[in-house]
Design a protein that fits this description.
It contains 22 helices and 22 strands. With 631 residues, it is of the alpha+beta class. It has a 9-stranded mixed β-sheet with strand order 1-6-5-4-7-3-2-8-9. The protein has a 5-stranded mixed β-sheet with strand order 10-11-14-12-13, sandwiched between helices. A hairpin with a 5-residue loop joins strand 10 (265-271) and strand 11 (277-283). It is elongated, with a radius of gyration of 36 Å. It binds adenosine-5'-diphosphate and magnesium ion. Adenosine-5'-diphosphate (ADP) is lined by residues 37, 41-42, 45, 84, 86-89, 97-98, 128, 130-131, 178.
Length: 631
């Protein structure tokens, strides 16, 4: 068919018909995306012309030089028109681009379809709906296009009702570019509203870096002859960093985050190479209200080639970075990518790991070079970051480097000690990083377990956030230095305890052998064993948990929450030099030995933030003991 003038009718490829049918049915609930797709195509067409014009500036033309997109509607005609002055298409290109699906894998794609609408709709999403999405709302689409450089009478008109065939016709067109007229289906009149169209445009296409214009309207709501730009028309993130002022970054942050406060910091990056994307990521100053809710919002917006794809794209960053806000703009993803596809997509994986690196890098640089900012960051988001080592194995060490703790090195509760700081203060021969978890700073700081460490001036990290037990179950070492809870397992101070210490301890153990046996007898239901302590200097006794046991306060919390915990008995360590313990060997205690042993155990539990099984019994035994001493 080579008649170039008359109107000719052509058949769609079978695939097109199939795809059209599918699209109309499966994407109806998302019908407004048609405008995004058409604007995206228009913007592409302008981008391509702009690119061509790099080598031939005459292509842009004098009065038509400003590339733009116009959206118009006509209530009487029931039409929406999307117009661009981009590159346009010649006849062959129209047939090629609009009449066929020239994409490889189309057949395979269609073969995968199941007929189940919800499953198919995200397959369609994966495939990319593009131009054909017009038929979701239109019963007929008329596309008129004039390729740049051709004569005005070399334009082409393509028209179709989306049911198997289309017509092509040579026409005249006043200027370069493409105009698409959607003749809306009967029930789609609600789209014929300035407000509606403007809101769709700002929702999805605000940052298309070209002006998207609509006609101004008069008092009666009738379109006038003058145009106004509806979108922001500039993708801030796509501009070179050097062009963007701090104020602009801040304004944009407020826009994407809906936060009134200024951001704490941001990192803006263009990644080129195998995957191409731009990321502009912010760390807020204040926590969003839902930070610790079960389903917090994730604040990263996904764009594909400047076109907004989705908010709250939780797959773009791991959960422990859910406080981050901003934009990621990919060049490689299909425009209609769905949440399901995000779950397992190589491009996303690569964007995600790159972005995590950027955020961790930003935090590292704050911690190092802008310490006041990091001190602002830590109390607000530290607890969230502490989820990191359990969630992001690959970055465990990096995240650990960002953690800040309270410690026995400081007199106050602030979490300001880094593992790096700790390591520089380790004693010669010390090979572990010591810590204790508790439900409050006071409990941790006054724990009897700290006594030997204070004695030997070994620093201990005081971990008092709920998440800390979880954190420490995933952090086993930092810079090859293992972590050790001072309240769990046998205490081995390694080379720090000298020969003298060891000899003294052996003697103490020998002397207290009988006492240990008797206490064990009393407490056999409650403890795994009783032993002479290495760690106590001023307290009479302490509870030592098994290596893998949860701290007592956590056990208590878990039980309250209705969790069954595996029964496991702690060890009771006693300090034979303590007056109370020494007295137990004396004759006057004889008949009250059992009570004393129980008191020893109960007060050790209390000191640990644990819960007594029989508090009244404890109080009564204690009262008797005190009365006895007073007598
Ligand atoms: P995609 O944009 O993913 O390529 P579409 O279905 O949206 O798929 O568009 C198909 C093709 O039609 C585009 O690649 C482009 O070549 C052509 N096209 C669509 N709209 C326009 C337009 N406004 N100007 C020029 N070419 C267009
Ligand atoms: Mg497209």
């Amino acid at each position: 068919m080579s008649t170039k003038t008359g109107k000719e009718t052509l058949q769609f490829e079978t695939e097109v018909t199939q795809l059209l049918h599918l699209m109309i049915h499966s994407l109806y609930s998302n019908k407004e995306i048609f405008l995004r797709e058409l604007i995206s195509n228009a913007s592409d067409a302008c981008d391509r012309l702009r690119f061509e014009a790099i080598s031939d500036s005459t292509l842009l033309g004098g009065k038509n030089a400003e590339l733009k997109i116009q959206v118009e509607y006509d209530k009487d005609e029931h039409t929406i028109t999307v117009r661009d002055n981009g590159i346009g298409m010649d006849r062959e290109e129209v047939v090629q681009n609009i009449g066929t699906i020239a994409r490889s894998g189309t057949r395979e794609f269609l073969g995968q379809l199941t007929g189940d609408q919800s499953k198919d709709s995200h397959l369609v999403g994966q495939f990319g709906v593009g131009f054909y999405s017009s038929f979701i709302v239109a019963e007929k689409v008329t596309l008129t296009t004039l390729k740049v450089g051709l004569e005005l009478d070399q334009a082409v008109r393509w028209e179709s009702e989306g049911t198997g065939s289309y017509t092509l016709e040579d026409v005249k067109k006043a200027r370069r570019g493409t105009e698409i007229v959607l003749h809306l289906k009967k029930d789609e009149d609600e789209l014929l509203s300035s407000l509606r169209l403007r809101s769709i445009i700002t929702k999805y296409s605000d940052h298309v870096p070209l002006p998207i214009e609509m006609r101004e309207e008069n008092d009666k709501g009738e379109p006038t002859g003058s145009w106004e730009t509806v979108n922001k028309a500039s993708a801030l993130w796509a501009r070179p960093k050097s062009d963007i002022s701090d104020e602009e970054y801040t304004e944009f942050y407020k826009h994407v985050s809906h936060d009134f406060a200024e951001p704490l910091a941001w990192v803006h990056n263009r990644v080129e190479g195998k995957t191409e994307y731009i990321s502009l990521l912010y760390i807020p100053k204040q926590a969003p209200f839902d930070l610790f809710e079960p389903n917090p919002t994730h604040g990263v917006k996904l764009y594909v080639q400047r076109v907004f794809i989705m908010d709250d794209a939780e797959k773009l960053l791991p959960r422990y970075l859910r406080f981050v806000r901003g934009v990621i703009d990919s060049n490689d993803l299909p425009l209609n990518i769905s949440r399901e596809i995000l779950q397992s997509n190589k491009v996303i994986d690569s964007i995600r790991s790159g972005s995590v690196k950027k955020i961790l890098g930003l935090l590292e640089s704050l911690a190092k070079n802008e310490t006041e900012k990091y001190q602002e960051f830590w109390p607000v988001f530290g607890k969230v970051l502490k989820e990191g080592p359990g969630e992001d194995f690959a970055n465990r060490e990096k995240i650990a480097g960002l953690l800040r703790f309270a410690s026995t090195h400081r007199s106050d509760e602030t979490q300001g000690v880094s593992l790096e700081d700790y390591i520089t203060r380790m004693k010669p021969g010390q090979d572990k990083i010591y810590y204790i978890t508790a439900d409050s700073h006071a409990t941790a700081n006054n724990s009897p377990h700290l006594e030997i460490f204070r004695d030997k001036e070994i620093e201990v990290l005081l971990l008092v956030d709920r998440v800390d037990e979880w954190l420490m179950s995933h952090l086993t070492e930092y810079r090859e230095k293992p972590f050790a809870s001072i309240a769990k397992g046998e205490l081995d101070l390694g080379e720090i305890s000298d020969a003298q210490d060891k000899k003294e301890l052996e003697e103490k153990e020998k002397e207290a052998q009988e006492l240990v046996r008797r206490i064990e007898e009393v407490l056999q239901d409650k403890v795994e064993a009783v032993r002479v302590s290495h760690r106590l200097t001023t307290s009479p006794a302490c509870i030592v948990l098994n290596e893998h046991d949860m701290a007592l306060y956590m056990q208590h919390l878990m039980k309250q929450a209705g969790h069954e915990l595996p029964a496991s008995k702690p060890v009771l360590e006693i300090n034979p030099e303590h007056a109370l313990v020494r007295r137990m060997e004396g004759e006057q205690v004889e008949d009250r030995f059992e009570d004393w042993a129980k008191i020893l155990f109960d007060q050790a539990i209390l000191a640990e933030g644990g819960q007594l099984q029989d508090p009244a019994g404890f109080v009564s035994r204690l009262n008797q003991l005190i009365s006895g001493i007073v007598d």
